[in-house]
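Let's study a protein:

===
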Amino acid sequence: MDDAASYEAEPPTTFDDIYFAFMALIMDLESIKGRIRWIWSRHCMGEFDLAAAAVATNTAVSLARGLIEEVEPIIEDRAWSGGVVTGKQDANYDCYDYAERSYLIPLLTFTRLLRELIPNSYLILGDGRSGEYDDATSNWASLTNQFKCQQNEIILSQHVTDLLAVALWCPDFDVEDEFLRGMRILKKEHKAPFSLLFAAQVFLDIHHVLGAPAARQIFSAMKKEVGIMEDLAAGHLEHHKDIKHRKWTLEWDRGLQELRITIAWNVKDPAHQAKLKLHKQGGSNIPPPDKEANRVWILSPALSGLYLLAVRIQVYYLGLALTNSWQTIMHCAHLHNLLGLKSTWMDMEIAISMLGESNFWVGETRA
């Protein structure tokens, strides 16, 4: 007879069970953070592209969120933080390394934010309240623990301010990393889940690896590449405006125009525009926003990398549409094949390998 009974594991309830689950989670999270730091250190050495580093980082943080969500129900009713740390206690900077591994800076930042942020109201956390970020900081290991704490609090408060403005006013923001996703949850549910604290600590870790000057260089490189792609789109639109081609449709023109509109919208710095709107509507409750443009991209190399990838993907598919319409690569490939030249045309070989032999030749292989 078939057993109709339903079996399930007993939920872990003992202290030993909960302690084991919590420590296993912390060890896994430390491993993930270590790998993310390694990725960005290799990016500094030129081994990883910005978009690749950003995707790997966001995927790792997403994996960490899944692990956290599995363990959270077990420990949420048996973990207390009240009374352990209070604002009246003097900071013990000798314990900085332990505090960093314990997500203390993100915890204190979001605790303060949630005290001041009224649900469905305006942004209260203002720029500059924690001090000014030292933009020349490049060698994190050489700093004192007190200075590290101060710089962490400043830069995290700045980025949280920007992301919360995006969450409040930019529902159609082009990209969303795990940090921004967590801020949307904070705005909606008025709570900071542990996964958001983890994403915030990863954000800080990346800055510790790169340093402020390198983060600005990454933004400049991203901006330059996006500008080149925007110029290409503008050039194609200008070239096609008076040319009628049987395989070129208005749909592709719209695609090029939408790409340019998207890039132009981000050039205007939507996060800063959102903060200006919040300041205008909130009146005296909202401090004037920082005047620096594009800070949301500058402070987050991961977010910049995801945006760069989004633009590249659009350009890739529009480029395929262009080449299929004009058949420029196809014609050149067949001419090159028919001429039987002994030399190798490397760019064409790369194009054939990327698009596949079957898209060029009848049959499986070229003649």
In short: The radius of gyration is 25 Å. The mean pLDDT is 81. The longest helix spans residues 15-44.
